[in-house]
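Practice problem: predict the structure.
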Amino acid sequence: MRLWFIAFLLLTGCATQKPQEQVPPISKVTTVTPIEIGLPTHYAYSAYADYLSPLLSNLNQAPFYQLSNPQLLVNAYRYHDQIGAADPRKTIYTFKSTTDDSWGYVTTSVGRSPIANGFVIEGSALGTVYALVLKQTKLCLATQAKGLPVFANGRWLFNESPGFFECTGLTNTRIYKVGSGLPGLLGPYFDDKDTVFVFRSQGQLQRVAVALKQQFPQLSVPDIRN
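Answer:
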């Protein structure tokens, strides 16, 4: 009888204990904030040092992009020259292969009213990164071309073997690493036709933006301080 009573008390005590409340895990919130790019009034501009070199260095960053041409242009080609164009909205910079007779090139073109905006993305799996969103801007990198394009009748005419292209600003081409969340992390601050570059520092972003402004004076860089 006594043992039964003790067991009864134990069971009653267990039944009256309140279950511990489950605390939901704290999830990180990704934030996107516009930033001021800032542009110098003038400086001695070098296409390779100020635009191509930092651009190719950025596009070679594995955490962000899944591209092969930037690495090839850096390791297997040497910068050659710029092809002249009567259209101030287009540029082509050429590279010569160091191993065979093929060519590579970087094309950049803008629309009538191109715009550059800068953002800082915080709280994502990438850590803190900076995004340059370019509207009405398209960039292509080509390798293994058998000849160089020429500008005629208001457009570029390419060789019969124009090479292997990787381009930005295309809805059917994904240039970002799967799982990076790019460019979707920007939410409403971009659309599928935009060119989006991602950087580890604001200084890297500014350097490319300044070079683009040098090439295309019509590029609008909004002042967000006002």
